[in-house]
Amino acid sequence: MMKTLPRIVAGVAAIALLGDASLAFAQAKPAAPAPKAAAPAAKPAAAPAAPAAARMTLTGTTPGVCILSRDAILGASTVGRYVQTRLGQLQNQANAELTGEQSSIQTAAKDLEAKKATLAPAAYQQQGAALQQRAEALQEKAQLRDRELQATEQKAYSRVLLEATPLVETEAKSKNCSVLLDAQAVMAVNDSMNLTQGVITALNGKFTQFDFDRERLDNQPAAQQR
Hints:
Helix content: 40-55%
Strand order of the largest sheet: 1-2
Radius of gyration: 25 Å
Largest sheet: 2 strands, parallel
């Protein structure tokens, strides 16, 4: 199973850079966590390294029993690597959007604090509350972008596996497979019964990339976005 993209928003740090201006209106509502730039998307999880005792060469075969690694197909195929690169680009775009808005809020908060001495308390509170609303809206957007990126990853890798399915069937027929096991579920197997490399080679010859963009969940109810 693939790991989801790293969260755009992490930790519980408040928007501290809003400065002292945040203290005036944080009494009513706690500050929302600041959007945090995410690391590049992680590659699909690889199988844990096998213990030394399991690294053996098996010569015997069980008729009809074959294995396949979907993680290897996603991680080693040309199209799988393309998807990984494209997901990283989409995540960087989302991060740039969020950090740009965060910087704008921080600048506005500093400007407000600089004018504090000349503003009436009511005006100061009003402008501070508006900043708080902007910060909360930004937090909601960051969470939305996170869900969108996860949905994008799932859809893109599902497309790769869908394209690989008939190739798996062809490879399995060529080796007279009657049982196909997940490679991560077995300790060792005769490589002649491993379909993975054959499927990767066939997939590389079938297609190497496809167009996709970030999924848009803006118009979906929150319950459907989770």
